Amino acid sequence: MKRIASIVLAAGLLACLGCEATTNQEARLLVQPAGWVGRAIEQCVGPADRLQQAGRIDSHRRVEVEEGVEIDVWVLKSRLYDQAADNRENLFEGRMTRGTIVLLHPMLTGKAWFLGLGERLADRGWDVVLLDLRGHGFSGGDYTTWGVREKHDVKKVVDDVLAHEAVSGKVYACGSSMGGSVAIQYAAIDPRCQGVVAISPPAGAIGVFRRMLCLLAEPYFQKAVNRAGEMAEFDPADASTVAAAKQLQCPLVVIHGSWDLVVPFSQGEAIVQASSAPKKKLIPVRFAGHAAELGRIGWLSDQIDVMADMSRAHRPDLPPDRTVARAR
Fold first, then answer.
1. Phi, psi (5° rounding) for residue 174?
2. Continuous H helices in 32-97
3. Of 172, 38, 156, 166, which Cα lies nearest the Cα of 102?
């Protein structure tokens, strides 16, 4: 009888250890991005020094943020040059700039993901900031916190770029998927941000976690979420795009595919409905999946222009944009 009890006890302990290992594995899935993916994408487009030599980016920076984490940053400056030079407020080093836009990539990618869009926007007169979010690409950090720390990272990057680069202080943000959530959370804490575009943004981290671990029973799901929070040292409930949207003081444009199976369209609707933005717009993309509109760079650039128009209408005190022919 004692032998049977010992066997049952040993089996129970092994099962518990197995459950704990499984919980850790699932927790890592939620908050530990594969940074090598962003690095691989960047190697495909070329390292920073080669991109600078080719004139595709203007500078490469490393910015230290909280906990000594370093964020890897590219800056592209407006490719438009003023002909009459009669609007000095929008003039930097002879360039016309419509503003500085920060582009924030989806999870499991990196800043190179948005290089094509960044170049298109620079051609249209935007100064552009591309960065690897923490835990991605060539930035430091082991974990993502789905905006809880990233929003402060972005603010610190903007501080650094405005202090050291000749770019516009009219700041805007655009992000896709997780990057869209970070963009909204950042815009809610930085009064310099004058407009935000979010592509397929999740309403909050916990909703995404539930879809990522859709086969887990609720008790095991809660254990995985709690463990993920312990690993990355944050409360997943704080990574709420809806809560951040309620604090927005700048215009908001949300673009969402009607057939998005990763982040349902209803989440984009919930963000817009909750938003306190003075001007807001939901752009449904019929029959499109998750962030599918990223492949339409020209169209997406147009929507960023729509956001800038909304910002100017909200803030008539801002200097007007000037659209001039590209001079090089």
1. -145, 130
2. 35-45, 48-53
3. 172
List Cβ neighbours of 283 (8 Å cut-off, separation of 6 or more). Answer: 253, 254, 255, 256, 303
Residues across the chain? 328
How does DSSP classify residue 133?
A: P
Which conformational region is residue 77 in: left (phi greater than 0), alpha (psi within -120 to 50 degrees), or beta?
A: beta
Instruction: Catalogue all structural domains in the chain, each as residue range(s) with its CATH number.
Output: 32-204+239-314 (3.40.50.1820)
Identify the three-state secondary structure at position 142. coil
Query: In one letter, which amino acid is 55?
Result: G
Per-residue pLDDT at 95:
77
**Tokens found for residue 221:** 């799901």
Is the C-alpha dihedral spanning 58, 45, 212, 288 positive or negative? Answer: positive
Name which of 123, 182, 121, 80 is nearest 307 in CA terms: 121
SS3 112: helix
Token pair, residue 70, equals 């370093």
**If DSSP codes are grouped into helix, strand and coil, which group holds residue 275?**
coil
CA torsion sign for 200, 206, 209, 213 is negative
* 114 vs 92, more confident: 114
- Percent of the chain exceeding pLDDT 90 equals 77
Tell me the C-alpha distance between 80 and 260, whole Å. 36
pTM recorded for the entire structure: 0.88
Write out the two tokens for 180.
Answer: 């869209």
Asked whether 241 and 147 are in contact (CB, 8 A), the reply is: yes
Rounded CA separation 283/30 (Å): 28
Q: What are phi and psi of 52, to 5 degrees?
A: -65, -45
CA 61, CA 158: separation in Å to the nearest integer? Answer: 12
Listed in order, strand segments (DSSP E) in 119-245 are 127-131, 171-176, 193-199
The 10s digit of each residue's pLDDT in 68-83 is: 999 999 999 999 876 5
Cα separation of the two ends of the chain: 88
DSSP 254: E
Instruction: Give the mean model confidence (pLDDT) for residues 261-272.
Output: 96
What's the mean pLDDT in 48-63?
96
